[in-house]
Amino acid sequence: MSTSSLPTYSCAKCGMSVNISCASCDKPLVNASLTKADGSSVQVSQCPDGHGKIKSPLCCGADMSCAL
To answer: Do the beta carbons of residue 52 and residue 45 sit within 8 Å?
Structure first.
């Protein structure tokens, strides 16, 4: 898979960028949010085929953002 087709997560503070794909199916992870029991939300990256989700990448102490 070409990295140009992967979503790019970027750090607003230092400019670091990463591309993320699922190791099981090689599809790009999609940006999503998860609502916790207390009502707050957490940014996650998940496999579109349901292989799981991870906490979105962090850099400089904050979630890296992903342009949708």
So the answer is: no
